[in-house]
Amino acid sequence: MHYHISVTDPESHFLSIVYTIPEIEGDFIEIQLPAWRPGRYEIQNFAKNIQFIEAISKSGEKLSLNKITKDRWRVQTHGANEIAIRYSYYAAIQNAGSSYVDPDLWYLNFINFSMYTEGRINEGYTVQLDLPEAYEIACGLPVIGHNLLKADDFYQLVDSPLLASNNLQKCEYEVDGVHFQVWMHGNLKPNWKRIQHDFKRFSKEQVATMQGFPESNYHFLNLILPTAFYHGVEHRNSTMVVLGPDDEGEGLYTDLLGVSSHELFHAWNLIRIRPLEFLPYDFTRENYFGTCFVAEGCTTYYGDLFLKRSGVFDEEAYLKELQVYLKRHFEQSGSSKQSLVESSFDLWLDGYEKGIPDRKVSVYHKGALVALILDLFIRKKTNHAQSLDDVMRLLWQRFGKPFIGYTLQDYIDIVEEVAGERLEWYWEECILSSFPLEGRLNEALAFVGLQMTTFSNGNTQLQVHDDFRAKIQRDKWLASVQALSEDEEE
After folding, report:
1. Superfamily assignment of 276-489 in CATH?
2. Do 2-165 and 169-265 show the same overall fold?
3. Of 340, 341, 351, whose CA–CA distance to 290 is shortest?
4. pLDDT given for residue 486 in this prediction
5. How far apart are alpha carbons 324 and 303 in whole angstroms?
6. How confident is the model at residue 487 (pLDDT cuts 50, 70, 90)?
7. Which of 58, 82, 231, 404 is most buried (most C-beta within 10 Å)?
8. Which residues pair with 175 in a beta bridge?
9. Cβ proximity of 184 and 224 under 8 Å
């Protein structure tokens, strides 16, 4: 399979695409444009951005092409063994899951506009980009020729976003033989020495915790806007991040650290440690699953925790981020009626909009808090000999490495194996019901000298009690799992 992508008029924001399908057998084929994208569990309707589409045989004959669903077409082959699908796609949105072209930048998420042929989704793809001279490519896909990319199958293609421009900036570093690249596009002058130092620290902490990395290389792709923005999406060996405003200074850098650490942990948790319902992805419809509190909640918890463990955040900065999760859960959805499993399932229904009052909970914020409760419970019970780290490592070893997909029951079984006991209270109160979290949360926080207080106006506040023994437990909880070098400690 082959894609040829060009942009005749960058000001128009239109991509001109030719999708060539070889070795065709039969009287017709069906081609499918994805209805959604991984990392955003709602129907996206990308087909609304297609302005024009036609099918042409290798000999130049125009073939009959009929739309049979909102994003699926049937092509009558008339005996042709190779067909080209020509179409134009409007790429004019700048968020971490979209596509955008202008005279200075190509930003492509192939999931938005790439099609697959029914029955041939596992075949390889090449992509030829007609880029302007001097453009540099930032992408997780291998480059095998001049602006020519290669993907092993459709799944890899659409899990590999791309930036291309003559104004890209980057730094590089290595951790345990893995090559990391941090790319930037935008009106800013990055402090590359600081970025390289901090990114290397949290990357080392994550790799040490999980005892290896799934890929040989990884790309942090960053699009920095002049307007306020915060969005990141995980991918197989990259993440796409859109942030702004570009003049925010230290606030922008803190956001960059937080979203980057979060998305890097997704390289294990969700990209490879994947719910069974996602193997394989069905791009034609909703893929319902009840474990997003693991995929996103645990990742949210660990994203900031790794920044503290690695020394990028100090304790004050970490507790400030924890306070954010507390406020967002208890002040926005503390009295909601859905459980985490129900809200995970219903992401496809209303997960990314405000919704009706007191219905859903955030799989990110409540998910992070129940991960904290579980981590501190296991640590207290085992005097830090076991923790949520062991749960994540077992998920990686048993499900991520063999890439076989886990169920809610698999997660329950591994958690109880690590804890050494049945945890009916945890599943019933924290995961499967809307039982208030305050009691269990403060019980867990007390172990490390913290307390959440709710005031009469509904506001919440995280308080620190400097009891000597609790401080020791807090230090153990927030400690690095790897020995920092002298250079990293500076």
Report:
1. Neutral Protease Domain 2 (1.10.390.10)
2. no
3. 341
4. 45
5. 13
6. low
7. 231
8. 178
9. yes
